[in-house]
Amino acid sequence: MDWITKWFGKGQSSKDSAKQRLKLVLVHDRATISPHLIEALKEEIMDVIRKYIEVDDSGLDISLDESGDSVALLANIPIKGLRRNSNPANSM
Amino acid sequence: MLSKVIVITSGKGGVGKTTTVAHIGTALALMGRKVAVVDADIGLRNLDIILGLENRIVYDLVNVIEGTCKLNQALIRDKRVGNLYLLPAAQTRTKEAVEPEQMKALCHSLRETFDYVLIDSPAGIEGGFRNALAGADSAIIVTTPHVSAVRDADRIIGLVEAAEKGIPKLIINRLDIEMVKKGEMLDQDDIVDILSIGLLGIIPEDPAIVTASNRGESVFNNDKSKSAEAYRRIARRIEGEDVPLLDLDDNHSFLGRLKRILTTNIG
Ligand SMILES: Nc1ncnc2c1ncn2[C@@H]1O[C@H](COP(=O)(O)OP(=O)(O)OP(=O)(O)O)[C@@H](O)[C@H]1O
Ligand SMILES: [Mg+2]
Question: Which of A13, A19, A29, A30 to probe the B interface (max B CBs under 10 A)?
Answer without folding.
Answer: A19
